[in-house]
Amino acid sequence: MSENSKKELQVAAIENGTVIDHIPPEQLFKVAQLIGLNKMENRITIGNNLISKKMGRKGVIKITDKFFEEDEINRIASVAPNVILNIIRDYEVIEKKTVNLSDELIDIVKCNNPKCITNNEPMPTHFYVIDREMGTLKCHYCERKINKEDIVIK
User: Fold this and answer.
1) Is 150 helix (H, G, I), strand (E, B) or coil?
2) Beta strands of 24-147 (E only): which ranges?
């Protein structure tokens, strides 16, 4: 086998769309769920536990003809901060951006405190990001802290 044939792409290129790259493998299916991949009719490629020089292992989602809005990007960041969004046009990456948590998340995350007012009254949730590195959030109403692993998307 020649050296070039060993270095082929593990996931096929897309013409237009978005590639969500460097997803922690344990968060890949949570990301897929929260952006509603199961409801999309776009062509979607998912790869998990791919080799990554930066992370060791990573997940990747490629979605043809899909470009994300800011609220969708915030949803991704709530469970997988620091993923990289690659915007693709004509098979070329025209924009690369690292997804970061915004300072506040409104009506994205469910509070895991059953006594919180947001679980007992029809109102939007409101969380503050108190630790970006660990992905820790704090509820505005009941002040319960939630770690990245325990986040439930609304």
Assistant:
1) helix
2) 44-52, 56-64, 84-89, 92-98, 104-106, 109-110, 126-131, 136-139, 145-146
Q: Tens-digit pLDDT profile for the chain (154 aa)? A: 344 444 445 567 899 999 999 999 999 998 998 888 999 999 999 999 999 898 899 999 999 999 998 878 888 887 887 899 999 999 999 999 888 878 898 998 899 999 999 999 999 999 999 988 778 999 999 999 998 888 887 7
Query: 21 near 83, Cβ under 8 Å?
Result: yes
HSE on the CB side for 91, CA within 13 Å? 2
For the whole model, what pTM was predicted?
0.76
Which letter does DSSP use for residue 25 in this model? G
The encoded tokens of residue 52 equal 């990554």
Rounded Cα–Cα distance for residues 132 and 127 (Å)? 13
